[in-house]
Amino acid sequence: MAAALAAAGSVSAETQLTIYNQNFATVKESRALDLQKGENETRVTDITAHLEPDSVILRDIKTPDAIRILEQNYESDPLSEGLLLRKSEGKVLDFEITMPQTGEKKLVKGKIVRSAYIPHQSAMQRYGQQYYYGQMALSSPQGGGQPIVEVDGKTQFGLPGKPLFDALDPKAFLKPTLLWRLWAAKAGRHDTEFSYLTGGMRWEATYNAVAPEKGDSFDLVGWVTLENISGKDFERASVKLMAGDVARAQPEGEMRSKSGLYAGDKSGFGAPAVTERAFEEYHLYTLPGPTTVLDREIKQVEFVRAANVPAKRLYVYDGFKPDQRYRGWDYSNIRNNADYGTACNPKVWVMLEFQNSEKSHLGMPLPKGEVKLYRRDIDGRNEFIGEDRIDHTPKDETVRLYTGNAFDVVGERRQTSFKIDERAHWVDESFEIKVRNHKKQEIEVRVVEHLYRWLQWEIRNNPMDFAKTDARTVEFRSKVPADGVVTITYTAHYTW
To answer: Partner of 109 at 20 to 30 A CA spacing, among 36, 79, 321, 389?
Structure first.
C-alpha cells in the first residue's frame, strides 16, 4: 500500500456537466492518478457538497480493469466549529473572552462536557420522520441542543467565549472528501474518467413572446437558466441540459420537499448557439463551447429565437364552477343531486394557440418552462399581457397558452330543468348558456360542457352542432356578433 495519502490528481479541462431539469446533475471529469502497483490510498476533495456516493464510477480510460475501488469512504461533514467541539468532548480548551468595559481579551479554560453538535443532516431526510424528529429534538435547547462546559469546577450551558483549538491535523476534512482504497495493476500514471450524480444544480427554460400592436403572431425568444448551488465551481466545462422526466428511485422514508435548434432563414436572426438532439426518450441541449459555472451563480443563455410565429386567439367558456360542498362525492350521488353543477363561472378564458412546426418558424422540441407574453402598445413599448407554463412539447405538436380572462366577454350558464326517474334509471338535465360580447368586432367562442352525471348519455333538444372531445365532454363553437349575445340550449339524457 502507498505509504502516503495521495491526492486524486488534477482535473483536466474536459469536465462535462449534464444538468437535468429535476434539480440534479451528472459530473464527468478526467483525472490523472499517480499510483503504485497494488493497493493505494487516494483522497478526492474537488467534489460537490451534494455528491451521491453510491453513484461514483471510476475507470481507467485506456484499460478499464487496470484500477479498481476496493473501498470508498465519503466524508460529507466538513470541518466546522461544531465538529471540532464534538471531537474535543472530554478535553480542556482555552476560551477567549472580551471584557465589555475595556475591550481587553483574556483566556479561561473550560472542559467540553457536551458539544451539542448534531451531524448527519442528510440522514434526517433519508431515514424517515422518526429519525428526523429525534435528531431535531436533540438539536433543540430542551432536548440537549446547548453545549455544556465545566469552568472552574462549575457546570454551565453555552460556551464561555470563543473556543481556541490546536493546529489542524493535515488529514482534516476542510470540505467534502472521498477517501479511496484503490488497487492498480501497474505503477505509474493512470488517466481516468471519474463521474457521479450530484444535487444542488438545476436548469429551466423560460420564454418571452412579443406580439405586435395588432394581430396574434409573435416573436419568440427562449432562455436557458442554470443555477449552481452544489458547493463547487466548474471552470470551462462542457454543459449539456437534459429535458424530460427521468425516473429516479425514491429512498424509503425520504421526506419530499422539472441536431440544431431550428431557427431557419425565415426568422432573420441566424442560427441559435445551443444545439439539440434526441437521446433515449429525452432531449439533450448542448451549450456552445466551454462554459464556466460558478458556485452560487445563476447563468442565462439564449437557446432559441424565432420571428413571426403564426398564432390563433381562442375564447373558451367553461361555465361549470366547482363547488366545494360536493368534494369527494361519487358518481351515484352526483347523478341524483339536482343542485350539483349549477354554480356558474362567468369568466371567458383567452388562449393563444400555435403549432410547434417548421412552417411556424419553430419545429424543435421545446423544454417545459414559463412563457411570458407581451404586446406592443401604440407607443412601441411592450406591455405584459399574461403568463403560462408549457410542458415538454415535441416537434409538430400544438401549444396552447392561457393568457387570462376576457374583460369584454361574459358567460352565463343556468340549469333550466332537472328530471329523474330512479326506477326507470334515467335523468334529463337541461341548460341555457349565454355568451355576451361587448367588443366592437365579432368573435368565436368555444363553449365547453361536461357530462358529469354518468357515462351513458346523449344530447337532445339542441339546435346547434357540437363536437364530442372526449367520453364526457362536448364543445359548441359559436360566432358571437359585436355587441351581441349568443344563446345555447341543450338537454343531456343520462341512462344507467
So the answer is: 79
Distance CA 111, CA 426 (A): 84
C-alpha cell at 482: 359585436
The topology (CATH level 3) of 6-77+171-198 is: Immunoglobulin-like (2.60.40)
Residue 405 has pLDDT above 70, yes or no: yes
How many CA atoms are closer than 13 Å to the CA of 393, on its beta-carbon side?
Answer: 22
* DSSP character string of 313-380: EEEEEE-B---GGGTT--HHHHHH-TTTT--B--EEEEEEEEE-SGGGT--SPBPSEEEEEEEE-TTS
3-state secondary structure of 474: strand
Query: Is-contact 240 23, C-beta < 8 A?
Result: no
CA distance 73 to 68: 14
Sequence ranges of the domains in the chain: 6-77+171-198, 81-164, 200-309, 312-356+397-495
Q: What is the mean pLDDT of residues 371-382?
A: 93
> Which of 5-19, 189-203, 462-476 has the least mean pLDDT?
5-19
CA dihedral 136, 137, 140, 142 (to 10 degrees): 180
For the domain spanning 312-356+397-495, the CATH number is 2.60.220
CA dist., res. 118 & res. 83, Å (int): 9
User: H or E segment at 267?
Assistant: helix 264-267
Question: pLDDT tens digit string along 52-80?
Answer: 999 999 999 999 889 999 999 988 766 67
This prediction's pTM = 0.66
